[in-house]
Amino acid sequence: MAEVKLYGFWPSPFSHRIIWALKLKGVEYEYIEEDLSNKSESLLKYNPVYKKTPVLVHGDKPIAESLVILEYIEETWPENPLLPKDPYERAMARFWIQYGVDTVAALRAFYHGSGEELEKAAKELLEGLKILEEQGLGDKKFFGGESMNLVDISYGALGYWLAAVEEAKGVKVLEPSTLPRLHAWAKNLDELPVVKENIPASDKMMAYLTAAMNRLAKN
Amino acid sequence: MDNDQVTLLGFWASPVAMRVRIALAEKGVRFEYKEQSMRNKSALLLEMNPVHKKIPVLIHNGKPICESLVIVQYIDEMWNQSPLLPSDPYERARSMFWADFVDQKIYDMKRKMMWTARGEEQEAAKKDFIDCLKLLEVELGAKPYFGGETLGYVDVALVPFYCWFHAYETIANFSIEAKCPKLIGWCKRCMQKESVSKSLAGPHKMYNYEEDTSAFRASTMLLV
């Protein structure tokens, strides 16, 4: 079996997504930490278009963009399937994964915002998450049903990461009073061993986010 | 598959709706096309795409599928003839990467090139656009299509934007062919296929549409 390498960035939920998928599939891999302020020759070689993490390298073949990597992992290691078998159900799963791209944009605005902009971003994020809760998650425990799948993986940042940003900003969006089912989903996801054991410690995460936000505020 | 009921809700000027038309035509799937109004959305559209209220929407035996690339993947899985995605997982990932690149980079640029203020911002947007097309030219390489010998997923994702090129060039005052002759060569090669030529709108019609709607768009931020 060819070697698997993951070039990642420890605080980034995009990298965490890949780690969870590889662990769920039982794939052995080498993790290489990237310093994004000083990108390695390898990263620039393997992802010349975006120069970002995560990048998966399987043998000598690089794959970039986390959602593309997730689909690749799903197809290459079919045991413990993370997408439905039925083509229609699979299309619905991919629709919700795609909806997450809008969610990421809203999360970014929330992360970057302050004052009035932060209020506006929080409101827009809440509206977007209401649709996700009502029409995407519904009454299910996970998007994948009884267990997590690629859709849950793609929304992972809504748990531990959003909680840390909310604390740093002093503004809450994902609460039991506003988004009861999604809040419960996030708690359940964070409790799963594959997630719990493969995210940064919350104090380390907080320190990083606070410092990053201060840097942003100065610029 | 004779009893299949396939309906496409689209808008004539939308490149992402054209993607679905090309995919269905490549597979020889018979479908009913229902033109949608963007300003006055039908009850059917709102029912079939309650989340985004946008086209394209494919309705297959009563069940809706939304998001153009999700629809194209679904079509590829449901109808096996003329496969659009390769079977090898790495080559599939490569196709998905470049189709996503089109969505991330090309789709958005139109707005910046045509609808933003003139001057420096527009020049920067034009340069960005050409740089992205040049990256696509490198990916195409010596192949006749991104899919190799036949039309593939990336071809379907990208070629609809060709009918917008005349509008971009006229409004933003530049020549795409001068900078990216190889890409234009590929566009023309695709246009020789009926599945593409019958699915794309005419470039002059697109230019007129752009002019007609620019005022409306400025006031409402309508996104097509």
Task: Report what the structure shows.
- Chain A: This is Glutathione S-transferase.
- Chain A: It catalyses: RX + glutathione = an S-substituted glutathione + a halide anion + H(+).
- Chain A: One of its GO terms (molecular function) is glutathione transferase activity.
- Chain A: Its EC number is 2.5.1.18.
- Chain A: One of its GO terms (biological process) is glutathione metabolic process.
- Chain B: Its main location: cytoplasm.
- The complex is a heterodimer of chains A (219) and B (224).
- By secondary structure, chain A is α+β, with helices and mostly antiparallel strands.
- In chain A, α7 (160-169) packs across α10.
- In chain A, β3 and β4 (61-64) form a beta hairpin.
- Chain A has ten helices and four strands, in the order βαβαββαααααααα.
- Chain A has two domains: 4-76, Glutaredoxin, CATH 3.40.30.10; 87-217, Glutathione S-transferase Yfyf (Class Pi), Chain A, domain 2 (Up-down Bundle).
- Chain A has helices at residues 13-24, 41-46, 66-76, 87-112, 115-137, 150-154, 160-169, 180-191, 193-196, 202-218, and strands at 4-8, 30-33, 55-58, 61-64.
- A four-stranded mixed beta sheet of chain A has the order 2-1-3-4, covered by helices on one side.
- Chain A is globular.
- Chain B has 224 residues and is an alpha+beta fold.
- Chain B folds into two domains: 6-78, Glutaredoxin (3-Layer(aba) Sandwich), CATH 3.40.30; 89-210, Glutathione S-transferase Yfyf (Class Pi), Chain A, domain 2 (Up-down Bundle).
- Chain B is 59% helix and 8% strand.
- Chain B has eleven helices and four strands; from the N terminus they run βαβαββααααααααα.
- Chain B has a four-stranded mixed beta sheet with strand order 2-1-3-4, with helices on one face.
- In chain B, α1 links the parallel β1 (6-10) and β2.
- In chain B, α4 (89-115) runs antiparallel to α5.
- The longest helix of chain B has 27 residues, at 89-115.
- The A-B interface holds A 49, 58, 61, 63-65, 67-69, 71-72, 75-76, 87-88, 90-92, 94-95, 98-99, 131, 135 and B 50-51, 60, 63, 65-67, 69-71, 73-74, 77-78, 89-90, 92-94, 96-97, 100-101, 135.
